[in-house]
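Consider one such protein record:
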Amino acid sequence: NNASEIQKRKLWEKTVAPEVLSGTALLGITVFHQDKEQAKNWASAIAYTLQTQGFEYTGGNVDIKIVDTPILSRWPVKPNFVMNGFLGLLVGGLLGMIWVAGKYAK
């Protein structure tokens, strides 16, 4: 059971990125997931949990409100290093072959 708790925390570290927005009393929550709808659901669930049970995590009389709904990005936010490396190698190899072929054609 302890191992599953450690795995959950590691997943949260990779998936959820909270940050206090500088100069404000706002907490921004960024959620990363391959499925956009899943990321939106996680963000909504986290915001709802903080709003309804946030008193358990704060000291004193703090009013927690949801300021904005989740916003989905059109493009992937976290790069896929393996895929990007493979594509870079492929494009670099093709450009190298074109350059070499151009040198020998002259």
